[in-house]
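Title: Request for sanity check on DUSAM domain-containing protein prediction

Description:
We are preparing a figure and want to confirm that the structure record we downloaded matches what your pipeline produces today. Could someone re-run it with the sequence below and paste the raw structure tokens into this thread? We only need the token string, no images.
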Amino acid sequence: MSETVDWGPIRTLARRVPLGEERLALTMTEKALLKRTASEVGLSDGEAETALASEEGALGLLREEIRRIREGSRRHMEALARMYRHQDKGDVSSARQERREVLAVEVVPHYRAIAQEQLDDMAYEP
């Protein structure tokens, strides 16, 4: 299974920081959190470093991280429900296709790993 991630701290930061405001004064700990989370959601270290060079960039980075987590989670859960419906009907081919479609668009490594593992597991089903 994919490595466990803890997005609680980044979600807490997002709730604390008004995302509509232009100013975002961050502590070193919060900057480290944003940088770590960037790699967890498929952003490069370079993208994170560039964003963290300014308050405006850091705010944009936080918004993008939260967006990727939210959208990836939604995409994963919706596809998972469809996959199980197909499996319940005995349509393993369509169930596999649900995971392939997630893999075609997903950028968050955690969600990609889950989809790939599920797809691999279905390779052994009749």
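Thanks, this matches our download. The chain has six helices and no strands.
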